[in-house]
């Protein structure tokens, strides 16, 4: 079956306290689109952080000694480095222009995912939401409460990757669906039993969403993916995708 | 604009020598779908390898000393390890159950991408195509020659990632579009100039494709993505996505 990736257009600029679920349902309704069972919504993290008031004014930040030292090495704004370190449980790589951390959620990414773009005010940055899985759950419950449909919600951010150039959109929070599709035990065309195949479907959905988010400019912070038959009720969390350090071969 | 991810149904089981371009155009035509300017086709590598006769019968493989040694460590079939090593320019990580190599193309992945599933015959494996960018170009030229439409073609495989559980589909070959969308210099909603944003769009398209390839079982080796406004004629190659070792922070 065909899968449709639909940009959610007409959302206002999100402010702290805004109800993302209600605004999304309203925007879809204005566009003549309802919400259906099985719909997947992908939100960029910045609108989620903004709606939760998860913003930091760099003007109010006093960098500590470690931030000053790392700012020296990386050439980055010491106040930004201070915010990045507050969000990090470890620094993985540091070099001129590079500060790759392990966030308190366990994500390995540049600058703890602290984002400068699409935040109003030149000195304001948006860290990742406190608990992106909980953010996704809250938005999902909001959409389900308003529409009666059973949906899934993914919160996403664009991360770089080891070994490979360029960034891709990935899931940082999820609710309403299994995050991994476990295909071990399924048989292929020729009857061969698949042994290693656990697909990170929420990452693939996040990547698909950026085809319309990225294409239509930063004014589209939400995509609706329709026609993907996700599995698993339950409440799969992206935290399940975090590979524990002791099993991460690329430290 | 909406992006559609459409499974290409009704393809026969691909045999060495088969013309993938012609078979794909024919399958679409049977489904009442034409080919349009701007269409992106994503092929799983196994059908490409199979059409190119890029198959190895393990029965004919004599493992060398290094393969025997690595088979001992990993617990894998020594003949498979021999094929994996032939495809690799370096071994990145080795451990019980784990053999992560750098393929001769530069991809860092498990078992050099040598695939056992969806290959007829229990002892037959499919390495990655010799030159997946060239495979993509050949298929693209075939489709364009048959239809007159200007399209892009991506060859894909599912790879694991550092730091993160689960596999996602990624591009290993590409033709007809830019592989990275460079958004540096663009302005965001608030006029902030994006400084670091090069999106690996071919990887996002490959990931989106697996939403229909994975969903419909292994019988769907090709997806058509329609409505994505790709950039760049030119002939972007996935080889551009390979991060040179000296710039790969996670060796």
Residues in helices of chain A, as a percent range: 25-40%
Distance between the termini of chain A: 40 Å
**Total strand segments of chain A:** 12
Order of helices and strands of chain A: EHEHEHHEEEEHEEEEHE
Mean pLDDT of chain A: 91
> Rg of chain A to the nearest angstrom?
19 Å
Total domain count of chain A: 2
Using the coordinates shown, work out and report the CATH topology of the largest domain in chain A.
60s Ribosomal Protein L30, Chain: A
Considering the protein shown, what is the CATH homologous superfamily of the largest domain in chain A? CofE-like
Segments of chain A where pLDDT lies below 50 for 5+ residues?
Answer: none
Class by SSE composition of chain A: alpha+beta
The general outline of chain A is globular
Number of helices, where a helix is a run of at least 4 consecutive DSSP H or I residues of chain A: 6
CATH class of the largest domain in chain A: Alpha Beta
Describe the protein's architecture and organization.
Two copies of one chain form a homodimer. Chain A is α+β, with helices and mostly antiparallel strands and 251 residues long. Chain A folds into two domains: 4-52 and 130-247, CofE-like (60s Ribosomal Protein L30, Chain: A, 2-Layer Sandwich), CATH 3.30.1330.100; 56-125, CofE-like fold (Alpha-Beta Complex). Helices cover 26% and strands 23% of the residues of chain A. Chain A has six helices and twelve strands. Chain A has helices at residues 20-30, 45-51, 65-74, 78-86, 132-147, 201-213; strands at 3-7, 40-44, 56-57, 88-95, 98-103, 108-110, 124-125, 152-160, 167-175, 181-182, 198-199, 222-226. In chain A, strands 1-12-2-8-9 form a five-stranded mixed beta sheet. In chain A, strand 4 (88-95) and strand 5 form a beta hairpin. In chain A, helix 1 packs across helix 5 and helix 3 crosses helix 4. Chain A is globular, with a radius of gyration of 19 Å. Chain A starts with a strand and ends in a 25-residue tail after the last strand. The model of chain A has no long low-confidence stretch (mean pLDDT 91). At the A-B interface, strand 1, strand 9, strand 11 and helix 6 of A face strand 1, strand 9, strand 11 and helix 6 of B. Strand 1 (3-7) of chain A pairs antiparallel with strand 1 (3-7) of chain B, so a sheet runs across the interface.
